[in-house]
Amino acid sequence: MRREQDLLTVRAAEGDEEAFETLVHHHAPALLRLATRLLGSRAEAEDAVQESFVSAWRKLPEFRGDARFGTWIHRIVTNRCLNVLRSRRSELGLDAVPEPPAPDHQVSPSRAAEAHAAVADLSRAMEGLSAEQRVCWVLRELDGVSYESIAETVGISPEAVRGRVFRARRYLTEAMAAWR
């Protein structure tokens, strides 16, 4: 699989649109999930991923292959999401927290209300994290990405990632204390 991805990357860098399209189809679902988790908005996530792929297509001839294409495009999407989070940090109010998905109809109304409240509280709590902490926490806790991979994606040391995840966990634990 890796060899196929490397070949597709080389072909795409040479201008092969079909190879790039194959890479997009392979990586887009995971990137969209990541961006949605980071931004909390499906529409913003779709824009960020689309803009990232456009940017990657333009920069692909410069791609040196120091990292795999998947790592490279994850870094582009993560950086785009960080920029969005930083730019909206000052303009966000509590009503900007996205509406969670509709509850499963097989769940009791009281349980659904409790789950809805917990998700809303977690969304508000996550707004208190710095953009950098939020990215590291989401990649580690929700996507299960290793510290080393996060470090490579974000462009910092694994120790710095551990520190950001630790501070994010501590902050979220305190913010969600009522739910223990």
From TrEMBL:
One family from Pfam that matches here is Sigma70_r2
Q: Does the keyword Nucleus apply?
A: no
List each copy of the RNA polymerase sigma factor 70 region 4 type domain by range.
122-171
Q: Keywords in UniProt for this one? A: DNA-binding, Sigma factor, Transcription, Transcription regulation
> Tell me, what is one Gene Ontology molecular-function annotation carried by this entry?
DNA binding
Cross-referenced InterPro entries, in alphabetical order? RNA_pol_sigma-70-like, RNA_pol_sigma-70_dom, RNA_pol_sigma70_r2, RNA_pol_sigma70_r4_t2, RNA_pol_sigma_r2, RNA_pol_sigma_r3/r4-like, WH-like_DNA-bd_sf
Q: Where is the RNA polymerase sigma-70 region domain?
A: 23-89
Q: Does the keyword Electron transport apply?
A: no
UniProt-listed GO biological process terms: DNA-templated transcription initiation
Out of the domains of life, which is the source? Answer: Bacteria
Q: Which family does it belong to?
A: Belongs to the sigma-70 factor family. ECF subfamily.
What is the protein's given name? Answer: RNA polymerase sigma factor
Organism annotation:
Streptomyces kanamyceticus
